[in-house]
Amino acid sequence: MTYYINTDKCTACGMCKEVCMNNAILDFNDFYVIDNLWCIDCGSCAVMCYENAITYNGLESEHQDEFNNEITELQPIEYF
Ligand code: SF4
Ligand code: SF4
C-alpha cells in the first residue's frame, strides 16, 4: 500500500470512499482506512480529501506492516 489515511486528520466525511472505484476504503465510523489488498494506487481519494488526510507513502515500510496488522484486528462498519 502506498496511500495512507492519517486518522488524526480524517473527519470521517466519507468522500474518499465514495470516489474509490475499487472499494478499498473501509468505514470505521470515526475514521476511514485504506485496505492495501484492494488499493490500486490510483490517487483519486487523495485528490478528493479536503482535509489532506491522505498521503502517498504516508508511513515508512517498517511501520506499514504494524499498521496493517492493527487494522485487520478492527472490524469495519461496512466492508463493501
Ligand atoms: S475524504 Fe479525507 S476526511 Fe473524508 S473520510 Fe476520507 S480521509 Fe477522512
Ligand atoms: S488510491 Fe485509488 S484505489 Fe487506492 S484507496 Fe484511493 S481511490 Fe481507492
> Which architecture does the CATH hierarchy give at level 2?
2-Layer Sandwich
How does the helix and strand content classify structurally? Answer: alpha+beta
The H/E string reads EHEEHEH
Radius of gyration: 11 Å
Top CATH class:
Alpha Beta
Helix content: 25-40%
Assembly type of the chains comes to single chain
* Beta strands, count: 4
The neighbouring-strand order within the major sheet is 1-4
Largest sheet: 2 strands, antiparallel
The helix count comes to 3
Mean pLDDT: 83
| Strand coverage percent | 15-25%
CATH fold label: Alpha-Beta Plaits
Shape label: globular
Hetero groups: iron/sulfur cluster
Structural account:
It is a single chain. Helices cover 28% and strands 15% of the residues. The mean pLDDT is 83. It has a two-stranded antiparallel sheet with strand order 1-4. Strands 2-3 form a two-stranded antiparallel ribbon. The chain is of the alpha+beta class and 80 residues long. It has one domain: 2-Layer Sandwich (Alpha-Beta Plaits). The protein is globular and about 30 Å long. Residues 5, 10-16, 32, 48-49, 51, 53-54 line the site of one iron/sulfur cluster.
Characteristics:
Alpha-Beta Plaits, binds iron/sulfur cluster, two-stranded antiparallel sheet, alpha+beta, 80 residues
What is the secondary structure topology, with strand pairs?
Blueprint: E1 3-5, H1 15-19, E2 25-27, E3 32-34, H2 44-48, E4 54-56, H3 61-72
The chain binds iron/sulfur cluster (2 copies).
One iron/sulfur cluster is lined by residues 5, 10-16, 32, 48-49, 51, 53-54.
